[in-house]
Structures are given as structure tokens and as C-alpha cells.
Specification:
about 90 residues, 2 domains, 4 helices
């Protein structure tokens, strides 16, 4: 299975079998995973706000990381284009 990651298709990131086994369709797997995650948050009494700020970062941090990753990807693409024979 190929995964789409920041405008790039890659074979290096794979989907684990336990996730594929959740349902027969991508939409069904997403629904099932979200339900499992919601249940986890309810059982551990972690709110979405707490989860985002403690495990991912606040909105500013997320934007900074997204910008940083996009800049790194652009730099890689440019370096690859420069290295390719014309």
C-alpha cells in the first residue's frame, strides 16, 4: 500500500495490518479507528484539547511544524531536480 505524505507518494510508510483489519473500506477503517480513539480518550479522561496540547502541540506549534516539513520537502525536491541530468 502506498501512502500520500505531504504531496508525495511513498512506499516507506506502510499501513499496519491491524488497521487494515478494522474494515473493508478506507472510510470504514477511518470510522472504526476514530471510534477506538474516542473511547481511549474517554477511558483515560484526556480531552481533545489536552491531547492536542500535550501530545501534538498547540495550534502555533502545529503550523510551525507543517511549515518546516513543507520547506524541507521543497528543499529535497529542488536538490533532486538540480542533481538530475538535463
Amino acid at each position: 500500500m502506498r501512502v500520500h505524505f505531504y504531496d508525495e507518494w511513498t512506499k516507506h510508510i506502510t499501513t499496519p495490518q491491524w488497521y487494515i483489519d478494522l474494515d473493508n473500506t478506507p472510510e470504514g477503517r477511518q470510522r472504526a479507528y476514530r471510534a477506538l480513539f474516542r473511547k481511549y480518550l474517554e477511558q483515560t479522561t484526556v480531552s481533545w484539547t489536552q491531547f492536542l496540547s500535550h501530545f501534538i502541540g498547540d495550534a502555533l506549534w502545529v503550523r510551525k511544524m507543517e511549515t518546516s516539513l513543507k520547506e524541507q520537502l521543497c528543499a529535497r525536491v529542488l536538490a533532486s531536480a538540480r542533481a538530475s541530468p538535463a
